[in-house]
Amino acid sequence: MRKFPLSILAASLVLAAGAAHAAGGEIAVIVKTSSSNYWQNVQKGATAAMADAKGYTMTFQGPATESAIADEVNMVENAVNRKVAGIVLGPSDPDALVPAVKKAWEAHIPVVIIDSVLADSGKQYYQSFLSTDNKKAGELCAQALIAKVGTTGKIAVMSYVAGAGSEIGRVGGFKDYLAAHSKLTIVGPFYSNSQMAIALNQTTDVLTSNPDLKGIFGANEPTAVGMGRALAQSGKAGKVVAVGFDGNEDLQGFIKDGTLDATAVQGSYQMGELGVKTVVSLIEKKPVKKNLDTGVVLVTKDNIDKPEAKNVLY
């Protein structure tokens, strides 16, 4: 039997140990749309996390619009077909993405879901879910509105994609809180398909047909921006209490000039950053939490320049 020097054996053991824990490959970050500032902020967080993900590369994709659900399904299926190491997914539809996520599971590709829930039938196929607690966020927006308009009168709900996981929780939480704590009448919800121009036109029509409107809620970034522009163009800014959602530069401007009374801002950067870190942990067989709340901050004119707001605005 041939004998090897101890130094060579030791080196071999180190290399073997390294190989056992070595990982790498492509991490596919696939979101609802690549055209919104919100999702671009998710991309910034994901890119930042890659600095510590040695041996990995990242791709970032999203359809042209959030309503292009079939395009997102194809992106996930293509990622599975090219055998990526892991997937971070913001699903545009809770049901439509389940079969694609199941294909990833069958191919032993770990999946981290961010932002919006996947249907219960898909829970077994992903390993971690990172999001805002959208129900609590919706309740927070309802509280802010009631604090300004009182408990009677008429308010409107400008929503985005009917049936999206985040929309169900967010608008559902908003409406349930109003029902339990006020006698406010709701006009809507109206669905913009996350298109700013559609939200602008819808809000303009709502303001015209409801001159007695006391308040209005815009439930995501493009919808809230369209809502804010409609309020400004109609001369209703500052006269109708408005609460938005998310925190891009347009919405920050609306807070500062009084068009919006408040906007609920999610940790979108954190979703991207923690999403990548979590999927890397999964690839490397490290334990992760099944559910992680990435938080929300209600931004107003009083706190917009404070660290708590600056940490989430984008």
Output the keywords.
314 residues; alpha/beta; Rossmann fold; 6-stranded parallel β-sheet; 6-stranded mixed β-sheet; 11 helices; 18% strand; disordered N terminus; signal; SBP_2_dom; Ribose import binding protein RbsB; Peripla_BP_I
Principal-axes geometry comes out as elongated
Total domains: 2
**Residues in helices, as a percent range:** 40-55%
Oligomer: single chain
Main beta-sheet annotation: 6 strands, parallel
Strand-residue proportion: 15-25%
Q: End-to-end distance, in Å?
A: 66 Å
The side-by-side strand order for the widest beta sheet comes to: 2-1-3-4-5-11
**CATH homologous superfamily descriptor of the largest domain:** Response regulator
Mean pLDDT: 93
What is the name of the CATH topology of the largest domain?
Answer: Rossmann fold
CATH architecture of the largest domain: 3-Layer(aba) Sandwich
CATH class of the largest domain: Alpha Beta
- Give the structural class: alpha/beta
Helix count?
A: 11
- Unreliable segments (pLDDT under 50, ≥5 consecutive)? 1-21
- Helix and strand sequence: HEHEHEHEEHEHEHEHEHEHEEH
What is the number of strand segments? 12
Domain Periplasmic binding protein: 27-286
Keywords: Signal
Organism: Pararobbsia alpina
Signal peptide: 1-22
What topology does this entry show?
Elements: H1 6-21, E1 25-30, H2 37-49, E2 56-61, H3 69-81, E3 86-89, H4 98-106, E4 111-114, E5 128-131, H5 134-149, E6 154-159, H6 165-181, E7 185-191, H7 196-209, E8 215-218, H8 221-234, E9 241-245, H9 249-257, E10 262-266, H10 268-283, E11 291-293, E12 296-299, H11 307-310
Parallel strand pairs: 1-2, 1-3, 3-4, 4-5, 5-11, 6-7, 6-8, 8-9, 9-10
Antiparallel strand pairs: 10-12
